[in-house]
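Predict the 3D structure for this chain.
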Amino acid sequence: MNAGFVYRERIRPAAAGVRVDAWLAARYAHSTADEWRRRIAEGRVELDGAPTAPDARLRPGQELTWRRPPWIEPPVPLGFAVLAADADLLVVAKPAGLPTAPAGGFLAHTLQTCVQRRFPEATPVHRLGRGTSGLVMFARSDRARRQLARCWREGAVERDYRALVRGDLAAALAIDVPIGSRPHPRLGRVHAADPGGRAARTELRPLRHRDAGTVVGIAIATGRPHQIRIHCAAAGHPLVGDPLYGTGGVPPPDATALPGDGGYLLHAIRLAFPHPADGRPVVVECAPPRALRV
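Done. Predicted structure below.
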């Protein structure tokens, strides 16, 4: 059991006049309107600190809270290795299967929670997908948080990955497929290849051919959610074992897999960035799992 959680949000003008139960069912689609009405009747949903009613109409500026009781989280590998640390930053190695931050039913079983037990001041600067292993950067000071966030926005952080993809990739390949969202039967929408989406760029280079596919080196110039998985699939080389993204970079119409489901091999192998204190170059590397070695 974890300790439960209180979800809070400030009501925006777009939600003015919407019923509480309808708003919650639309915003948190994992539960039906009937389930939300039951929670409201149990006093677990409040507006401005007081229990509310299902038919209450929302007003801009109100604070809506949902008190979720403790729950049992799925078992995941709860460990990490510190690869670089000083007063400003921390770079750790995340195991595949461990979510980076709380989301999707995970609260205590996350890399962020594990790291903060040892380094309470540390906050993640970026995320890796649950099924991805390798390097995650944390900031340990306000100065570092601001500087590192700027580096990520301005493209001053070099990110190299390694993965096992289907098929025989014979030559280097650059992929510029835009990433937006597509329908998903369980979640409503998920990130996927989309002509109307945001610009994204991924570069692949073959490193070693195996019976199961090709071990590739990957560099990304942008950091859209699930970008590598989507782009490899869009290029006709989905990650071996990826349960969600097939050829084309979109989930199948009858998809039951979720973005957090694993089964593939994707590893963040290298980060290079200017140190937030003085700008000196920093390079951190993390050895890949055996199946991705070349």
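The chain has a mean pLDDT of 95.
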